[in-house]
Amino acid sequence: MTFVDSILYGFQVTFQPTNILFCAIGVLVGTLVGVLPGIGPAGAMALLLPATFKFSPTATLILLGGIYYGVQYGGSTTSILVNIPGEASSVITCLDGYQMARNGRAGPALGIAAWGSFIAGTIANIGLMLVALPLAHAALSFGPPEYFALMCAGLLIVTYLAQGSVLKAIMMALVGIILGSIGLDVITGLPRFTLGINELTDGVGIIPLVMGLFGISEILENLEGSLQTEIFKTRVKNLWPSFQDWMEAKWAILRGSLIGFVLGILPGGGAVISTFVAYAVEKKISKHPERFGTGAIEGVAAPESANNAAAGGSLIPLLSLGIPPNPIMAIFFSALIIHGVQPGPLLIKQHPDLFWGLVASLYLGNALLLVLNLPLIGMWVKVLEIPYRILFPLILLFCLIGAYSMNNVTFDLYVMLIFGLFGWIMRKFGYEGAPLVLAYVLGPMLENALRQSLLISQGSFTIFFTRPISAIALGFAFLLLLSNLFPYFKKRREQYERFKE
Amino acid sequence: MKTYDRISSFFWFLVSVVVFTESVRLGLGTLRNPGRGFLTFGASGLLGILSIALFLQASFRKEEKLEGSPLSHILWQRILSVLAALGLYSVLMPTLGYLISTFLLMTFLFWSLEKRWTGWILLSSFLSTILTYLVFSKWLNCQFPDGLFGF
Fold first, then answer.
1. What pTM, to 2 d.p., does this model score?
2. CB A188 to CB B90 under 8 A?
3. B63's torsion region: left (phi>0), alpha (psi -120 to 50) or beta?
4. Which of B12, B82, B91 is opposite residue A171, by nearest beta carbon?
5. Is A191 helix (H, G, I), strand (E, B) or coil?
6. B90, A429: Cβ pair inside 8 Å?
């Protein structure tokens, strides 16, 4: 199949009625999740995953892709209109988006966010098609040492980009590796760390783990204080940005798209970091940096473009290498495994319907978000007016159902509650869940790669340094680790922290 | 945060010791043929070292200005009652079945958070139970337990 044939084939797959329906459900659920606090994209995906068992892997991936895109969009709507970021990736949009709304320019802010997301999503899709194929081809020559080194580097980048202490983030990654080793040892087939509990023979389920760490702990945090919410009412008009707005925002959209795409590919980059970087770059190169924070349209366009582009970019390492770069992609990874599809370099060749169908569905998802959501903005704001004291019991119930319906065992409910409590306490103590989840997913693969590498090299660790790709990846990881000691980077990190505050 | 870092570092040190010991018991194998405790041996060892580093870092760090404890100003009663209700729900669901246990859970959650009149709470609990049952059990084919009463 030629490149054009493949794209046409992808659209043929996507335009099957079931897949269109899944894409529409995905973007709507994603937008709803983006609007609501308490349940993030990982939780929403985990909740809907059991419901996809009787559908094809392609339909499942299209649904998850729709949710991921929808979340980025939904988060921006509430950030602009009510100064409440539904998701972490929309926090930075509050700075200028909400100010634009207060200045009576909510319409152009929402419009540029939507169009920026659409353009960025399209650029990321093109990038995904151009990069994933050659990367998958190159990855066919990768052996266990290369995979081990890439995963180590990935985990270290995740911990480096963590929002809090790097030391604590590395500790969480190590805890994730230990948790991932619970269950049967892949090579010997013998159990380990199961504490004599039969249900742990298959390991700790990712769905209850994610639901607990991101869903239950978030709800508990919200339950700590007052459940009163104040909504700033604003009128939305002129959703189409003016010519002047376009002129001011065009480069911000393009730069945001590129930054988001590149950071999305990097492990740990994802949507959140890319928004901060895109905003910082815009402010840095702007001729009028003082306008930022007072309602500059570039301050909305850049991060909103970046988070959508990052969503597309982060699919590349998953689909071409089989390495999930962030917790959301870890859910994608689990979904593929559950459906019997092994992510990795052979995925595109063995499951072209899945890859090209997903790529085409991302186009469709972007278009649906634009067409469906701009007219529905009023409805999303109404959703925010539902009091938390009604919303939270419902979200808790959804989490319980999601955790239970995966295997239909109550043990998963206990696991979810334990990780919910654990996640909540860890938040209080300044630990993050993302490195843990990623290491939990990568742990078994990392172990396999390490043991296979040592078998190949007959016990010599030099195998990791004599092969160019693994040597470069490990060298990069080592330098990254060292960089924490350099005052320059420390200073930059402090600046970033201050900026974030 | 200084004290909390020390407490958490101590906790992780204990975890690392337990995992480390168990890894050795499971068998480390050799470098040519690593055993099932090999990776966790390394991971727990590193976790132990880093927890000591965190403890030392926290101990030698200057005490920040009084920021207040991260665990103060928390409505403990609400958090604990919600957690207890969720735990009880997990225990009782196989016996009572999805419909009854979910209705009871939702009634409690709405009652503890909403404090509205009883009729509203009961109606909301009933609707949320029935709707989730219809969507997840009937439409999406999730297998909820029937419980003692057969529903």
1. 0.80
2. no
3. beta
4. B12
5. strand
6. no
